[in-house]
Design goal:
Elements: H1 2-17, E1 20-23, E2 29-32, E3 39-42, H2 44-52, E4 59-62, E5 79-80, E6 83-84, H3 86-91, E7 96-99, H4 106-114, E8 119-121, H5 127-141, H6 144-165, E9 171-176, H7 190-197, E10 200-202, H8 216-222, E11 226-229, H9 250-253, E12 257-259, H10 272-287
Parallel strand pairs: 3-4, 3-7, 7-8, 9-10, 9-11, 11-12
Antiparallel strand pairs: 1-2, 5-6
Helix pairs in contact: 5-6, 6-10
C-alpha cells in the first residue's frame, strides 16, 4: 500500500512538471517546462475555449467582452481588442498568454513574446481548427482529458450537421457583419465555412480581403436569396430591415432577412455550432420559398 501510494505521488509530481509543447495557428512552437497555471486570454473566443478545454480555473485575466461562461465576467481585465494594458497584464505574472493578433494588439503581443512570455496565437480558419485549438490549449494547461473530450464532441456534432445539410440545394447568401461601414466576409473566413456547411454559398466569397467593406450596389448586383446579419449583441439589428426598401432583392421579396446572434457565429468556439443549427434551419425555410 505504501509503495503504491509513493508511486502515485511520484507519478503525479512527474506529470505536473512534465514539459508540454504544441504549435499555434501561426506555426510557432510553444514549449512550457510544466503545464500553465496562470493564463491570460487576449480574445473572447480564447477565454471561452480555455473554459471548454477544462482550464478555466487557470485563467487569471482576460480581455474585455470575455463574457462566456458566466465565470469569465469576473476575471480581471487587461485591455480590449483595440489595445492591451501591458502593465496590468504583467502584474498578473502569466506563464502563458493566449492571443488573437489583430491590428490593435499585434505589436503588443510581439512585445510580450520578446519579454520571454510564452504566447499561443490563435486564428481558426476551418471548423476543425476549433477542435485543434481545444486540444492544444488542453495540452498547454495540463487538462488534456477534458480538452480531448470537448474536441471529440465538437467534431461529432459538426459531422452530423455536415451529413444533414451540406448536400441540400445551394442558396446564395449575404452575411452582413456591420452597417456603417457595410462589411461582410470572404470565402476564407470561418463564417463562410458555416454557410457552406448548411448548404449555402457566400456571394462575396471571391473577394480578396477576409473582412471587406462593400457598397450597397454590390449587394444589389449579387442579389442574395438570404441575408443574415449579426450586429453588436443578440438583438436583431435595426439596419437589417433597411434592406426592405430594395424590393428587387430576392431575399426581400421572399422575406428572407434574418439575424443570428454574433456570439454564435463570430466567435470561434464550440457555440458556433449552435449558430450553425440556427442558420441551417433558416436556410431550410428559405428553400421552401423558391
Amino acid at each position: 500500500m505504501r509503495k503504491t501510494l509513493i508511486t502515485i505521488i511520484l507519478g503525479t509530481s512527474i506529470a505536473a512538471s512534465a514539459e508540454v509543447s504544441v504549435r499555434d495557428d501561426y506555426r510557432n512552437r510553444i514549449t512550457l517546462q510544466a503545464p500553465a497555471h496562470r493564463i491570460v486570454s487576449l480574445a473572447p473566443h480564447l477565454t471561452e475555449l480555455l473554459y471548454a478545454a477544462g482550464a478555466g480555473d487557470r485563467l487569471v485575466g482576460a480581455i474585455e467582452h470575455s463574457d462566456y461562461p458566466e465565470a469569465a465576467r469576473k476575471l480581471p481585465r487587461v485591455g480590449s481588442e483595440s489595445g492591451i494594458n501591458l502593465e496590468a497584464l504583467l502584474r498578473l505574472k502569466p506563464d502563458l498568454v493566449a492571443a488573437w493578433p489583430n491590428a490593435g494588439s499585434r505589436r503588443q503581443i510581439e512585445r510580450l513574446a520578446a519579454l520571454g512570455i510564452p504566447v499561443y496565437r490563435s486564428e481558426p480558419r476551418e471548423l476543425d481548427d476549433i477542435a485543434v485549438t481545444l486540444q492544444a490549449l488542453g495540452e498547454l494547461a495540463g487538462t488534456r482529458a477534458v480538452a480531448e473530450a470537448a474536441a471529440r464532441a465538437f467534431r461529432e456534432r459538426a459531422a452530423r450537421l455536415q451529413r444533414a445539410h451540406s448536400a441540400k440545394p445551394r442558396l446564395r447568401v449575404f452575411y452582413q457583419v456591420w452597417d456603417r461601414p457595410l462589411m461582410t466576409v470572404n470565402g476564407a473566413h470561418l463564417i463562410s465555412k458555416v454557410i457552406r456547411l448548411c448548404g449555402g454559398e457566400n456571394v462575396f466569397a471571391a473577394l480578396p480581403v477576409i473582412a471587406p467593406p462593400i457598397d450597397r450596389e454590390a449587394v444589389l448586383r449579387a442579389d442574395p436569396e438570404v441575408i443574415i446579419a449579426s450586429g453588436a449583441d443578440g438583438l436583431r439589428p435595426a439596419w437589417l430591415d433597411d434592406w426592405s426598401a430594395f424590393s428587387q432583392l430576392t431575399a426581400v421579396r421572399r422575406g428572407s432577412l434574418h439575424a443570428v446572434p454574433p456570439e454564435l457565429m463570430q466567435r470561434h468556439t464550440p457555440r458556433i455550432l449552435d449558430g450553425a443549427e440556427r442558420l441551417c434551419a433558416l436556410f431550410d425555410q428559405a428553400r421552401t420559398k423558391r
